[in-house]
Amino acid sequence: MTETTSGSWPGALGDPVTAAALRAMHSTPAAPWSNDRLAAEAGVSRPTLARRFTTLVGRPPMAYLTWWRVILAATLLRDTKETLAAIASRVGYGSPYALSHAFEREFGTTPGRYRAHVNAGQGCDVVTSRRSATRPPHMPRS
């Protein structure tokens, strides 16, 4: 969920349909999710999932999945030395190009520039989402 969405986590997680879709995406983000598959996972029709999810989360299911995958990619770029190809595969993209395109569309910078920025000790503030006020996570290293 983002800072600019109309939804709220308590509402989204309190709704069994939305919660089932979120659990599915979060537990296996690299799976080949589609609206039909997420709706089946939640036990509802595709329009019902789309309506409830968008109302409660603030963006449609596949837009949320894209956002979640690039957040995961940003974390891996920051915390590992994995190649972009390996990260793309881990978060559900078929190629480094596909991940780069989604990352740049969402955050306005490339994965390589983002990694160089955080590796230079400059934090994550260089990356702001074009779609919302979200940023890749800046969490303490574990």
Automatic annotation (TrEMBL):
Residues 19-117 form the HTH araC/xylS-type domain. Keywords: DNA-binding, Transcription, Transcription regulation. Transmembrane segments: none annotated. InterPro entries: AraC_XylS_family_regulators, Homeodomain-like_sf, HTH_AraC, HTH_AraC-typ_CS. Signal peptide: none annotated. PROSITE patterns: HTH_ARAC_FAMILY_1, HTH_ARAC_FAMILY_2. It comes from the Bacteria. Gene3D superfamilies: Homeodomain-like. One of its GO terms (molecular function) is sequence-specific DNA binding. PANTHER family: HTH-TYPE TRANSCRIPTIONAL ACTIVATOR RHAS, HTH-TYPE TRANSCRIPTIONAL ACTIVATOR RHAS-RELATED. This is HTH araC/xylS-type domain-containing protein. It comes from Acrocarpospora pleiomorpha.
